[in-house]
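Standup notes
- HV: blocked on the assembly model, inputs below
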Amino acid sequence: MKPYLSFFKMSLLRNLQYRIAALAGIATQFFFGFIFIMIFKGFYSYSSITPDISFKALVQTVWLQQSFLFFIMLWLRDNEIFHMITTGQIAYEMVRPTHMYFYWSAKLLGQRLAGGVLRFLPILFIACFLPEPYNLVLPDSFTTLILFLTTLVLGLILIITLTMIIYISVFYTLSPTGSFLLFRVLGEFLGGATIPIPLMPDTLKTITYLLPFRYSGDLPFRIYAGHIHHEEAVISIFVQIFWILLLGVSGNYWMKHALKKIVVQGG
Amino acid sequence: MKLYLKYLKIHFMSQMEYRTAFILLTIGQFFVPFLIFVSMVLLFKKFDHLMGWTLPEVALIYGIIHISFSVSEGLARGFDSFSNLVRTGDFDRLLVRPRSTVIQVLGSKFEFTRLGRFFQSLVVLTYALLHINIHWTFLKILYLMLIVLSGITVFIGIFILGAALSFWTVDGLEIVNIFTDGGREMAQYPLGIYSKFIKRFFTFVIPFGLVNFYPILFLLEKSDKSLYAISPFFALIFIMPCLLIWQYGVTHYTSTGS
C-alpha cells in the first residue's frame, strides 16, 4: 500500500504546482456556469411546461459540475502514460516491483484530486454569494450532504477505473486519440454533461441509467440538489460499487493480458 | 497569397501521412459539437420554444457561428498556438524573412481535421434553412454569406489578439479560451436570452452579437432596425485594432534567446 500512497502524493504535489492555470480555469468555469444557467433560465421562464427538475435544483447541479469538473471529466489525460506506452519506456515501468494497475491509478487519482482541490473551493464559495436565482445553497439536510460526499468520492474512483480502460486500450491501438475521442463523445453525453439527464426523453434516460457514466457526476450533484431521494441514493451507492468492481477487475485482467503480449522495440 | 497556398499544400500532405489518426480526428471533430446540437434539439423537444425562438431559428444562429468558428480555427491555428513560437524563440526566424509576419504565422499551421466540425455546422445549417420560413432572394443569400464572413473575421481577430498578448506574457494565456471556445458556446444561442451585462459585452467589446444575433433578427424580420442590418460591417472592422495590437507587439518583441 505504501508505495502507491507515495505515487499518489508525488502526483498530487506536482499537479498542485499549476496554480495560475487553475485561476484561469476558475474564470472559464464561471463563465460557462453563467452561460448554462442563463440558457436554462430562458427555457424555463417562458415555457408553459414544468419539467420534473426545478430551475433551482438545476442551478445547483450546474455549479457543482463546474466546481468538480476535474473529478468527472473524461477528457483529462495524462500524456506521460501515453508517452510511456508509445515510446517503449514502459519497459522500465515493468521492472518496478509494484503493480502497474495500482501505480497508474494512484497517479491518475493524484492528478484529478490536485486539479479539483485547486478549483472547487473558490467556485463553490463565490457561487454561494451570487444573487438569486444564480446562487448555490446548502443541502437540505446533513444526511444529504453525507450521501453527496460518499457518492462523489465513489464517483471519482469510478472515473479512474473507467479511464484506466482507455489507457490500457492504447496498448493495442498505440494512438490515444481514437479511444479517447470515442469515450469522450459517448461518456459526456450519456453522463449528462451536455444536457442534464432529467431533461432527456425517457428512453435516453433509461439508457444512461444502464451505463456507468452518470454515476460519477450526475448522481452526486442531483443528490445535493435534493432531486434524488435518500432511498434511491443508497441503492445507487451499490450500483457505483458494482461498476467499480466490474471495471476494476476487468481492467486489471486486461492489463495483465496486454503486458504479457507486449513487444518493446529496442532503442 | 501564392505563398499561403503553398503552405497549405505542405500542411495537407504532412497531415495525410497519418491517415488513420487524421480520419478519426475528423470524425471526432464532427461528433463532439454535433452532440451539443442534439442536446439543443432535445431541449427544444422538452420546452417547445426559447423565449419566442423556435428550433430552426436557433439552429440557423448555431450553424452560422459554428461555420465561422471552424473555418477560422482551421485558418488561424498558427495564432492559436503562437505562444510556442515565442517561448522557443522560433519567431526570430520568421522576422528575418522578407514576408509579412501575419502571413507566415497563418501559414505556420493549418488544421485540416477541422473539416469535421465544418461539416457538422453545414448539416445543422442545411437543416435550419430547410425548416425556416423565409422567402429567399439572391440578396438574402449574399447577406447570409456576408454574416458568415464577418463571423470568421471576428474569430480570427480574437486569435490574433490572444497571440499578440503572448509577446508580453511569453506563455500562452488560457483565459483567451473564454472568448474563443466560450464565445462560440455562448453565441450558438441567441444573444437576446442573456443578461444585460453579457449582451453589452458581446455587442460592444467582443462583437459576437454582430455576427449572428442582430443580422438574423433583421433577416427573420423580427426587428426592422436598419442598424441591425449593417452590424456585420462593424464586425468586419473588429480585426483592425487586433492587427494594430499585433504590429505593436511585433515591434516590441524581445526574443527569449533560446
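- HV (later): unblocked. Chain B has 16 helices and no strands. The interface with chain A takes residues 20-21, 24-25, 27-28, 31-32, 35-36, 38-39, 42-43, 45-52, 173-175, 177-178, 182, 185-186, 189, 193-195, 198 of chain B (CB under 8 Å).
- Next: hand off to the docking folks.
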